[in-house]
Amino acid sequence: MSLGIGVLSRLPLFQTKVHSINTGGETIPRPVMEVQLKTENGDMVFFICHWKSKLGGDTATEALRRSSAKIVHRRLLELHEDETPVIIMGDLNENHDDFYLRSGMILCALLPDDPAAAALAEKHSRMSKEFLVLSGNKPPETPSFFEGSLALYSPWWDDMPGGSYYYGGKWETIDHFLLPDSLFDGTGWDFASCHVLNYPPFTTQEGVPNSYILRYGRGLSDHLPLLLHLVDVSPGTAY
Question: I need a surface site. Which of 32, 50, 68, 115 has the fewest CB within 10 A?
Fold first, then answer.
């Protein structure tokens, strides 16, 4: 089930949706799952994603990742009006800084809040919003982008060194938690920290992901897990 996505939760699931993605008359076999949870401090919405891999070429597959980003962006705008806390999570198969890694010439599904990225988006995708804007600011901001663009905080910008996936002798940051400004407003749930679990049993003695080997039935995953910590900052809450 390499394309499967799912959720395990000790909190009640209030509502679950699966957003199918169609592009060029073809349905992408990697939908976006939207899950609403009831917590002691209000509802939260999670988008669980497994975007298209780069198998077949970075540029050739980028349109499929942008199609997934477009679905998430549309729902973000709708939920933002209700001020519902939202978290985007999963293997997006795109580094947080892919725009720079690819010389700033490709309209990536994940774009930094950078004037050059904003100019490229303005030129190619102003109306379709086929991208998510990432920021290292807390709360996230998009001063470089046009009106109607929402910023999402990515811990990769300043909180987490290294990466979660090791390929070709290099670490990549393709696994994500992306957070809106509502998780930095000092009310309800707020961001506290995010970490890569880069130690055994998730890593080998060499410090790389302890990949599952079907032949031997050993190992865990070729991706390292991320741990997101939120805190309840409601008045009167004790820690």
Answer: 115
pTM of the model: 0.92
Asked whether residue 1 is assigned to any structural domain, the reply reads no
Cβ pair 41, 232 in contact under 8 A: yes
pLDDT tens digits for 1-50? 455 788 999 988 888 999 988 777 767 778 899 999 988 888 899 999 99
Q: Which residues span the domain enclosing 55?
A: 13-232
Q: Identify whether 168 is part of a domain.
A: yes
CATH number assigned to the domain comprising residue 109: 3.60.10
